[in-house]
Predict the structure.
Amino acid sequence: MREIADQERQKSGPSHPDTITARNSLAVALKDFGSLDEAASVYREALRDASYKHSDDQPLVLTLRHNLAVVLRIQGNLNEAEREHSAILQIQERRYGHEHPETLTTRLSLARVLDDRGFAAEAEVAFREILSICARVMGPDHPRTLSVHGNLAYLLADQERFAEAETEYRDALSACRKALGVDHPETLTNNHNLAMVLGNQGRLTEAIPRFRDVVERRDRTLGPDHPETLLARKNLGESLSRAGQPSESAEEFKEVAAGWARTRGADHESVWDARYRRAQLLWEAGHPRAAQEELEALLDRTREVRPDGDPRITTLQRVLMAVRADDGDS
């Protein structure tokens, strides 16, 4: 992606639509892999260069502005995200009307900001209104309608209204499978989130097969190191642990740690957390020697990159002493 964006810039110039499109694609990929700061920087640079030849209300520029606002919301910069989405909405309502798909997408983004601010009741009203309009204007099985349906279910689950969320997810999942197919990202997201809701209700025997199915399909369609694949694998691991299967859970966390190490770097905090979790599970499963080996390797690595007295070092030392004692190696 970087190479393509650089080539377009050199060939066509920084303000050319092809260059802007390539940089947008680069920023989307960075966002998907969790590099939010870098994605925001790419969006801002593309917007700055686009401003020399394109006005703020041009479709290509609006796409950049929208995608930047999405990243800002994920980062927690809610004021800036809301300002940007509101400005975009005014342009879209004036140009397209209140029920145009692009307008509805921006309204959905603003509803998400409401939810992030803690205004769940207001956000739910907005989601239901947008869902109703999408179903009427585009049809109940349109991808945009299905996306809004999933967002409503997520909102309900976030409020721990799990039974209601389950109903919404099942409806959305059934429609997604029919309209989009079993391997479509929206289908898999709904199935993953339904598994989460089932797990939150203690129905692990129903949740675990769904997590396995999502992991297998994302692994095949997105790749083993894609963030969505690794997220599903992590949640599968936690569900296996809760179901009293620590050995199987430890294997999932081994894969999670390896995937995050390849995509985020070996010393990223998420890699440390996954390796430490795996060691805990190995110990819980009655394999203290394997747990000890994982903890020792993690301690050696942590000492290389963190100062003496770091909380992670002291945690590893304390747990390692207990594991060694359990293994008779004290």
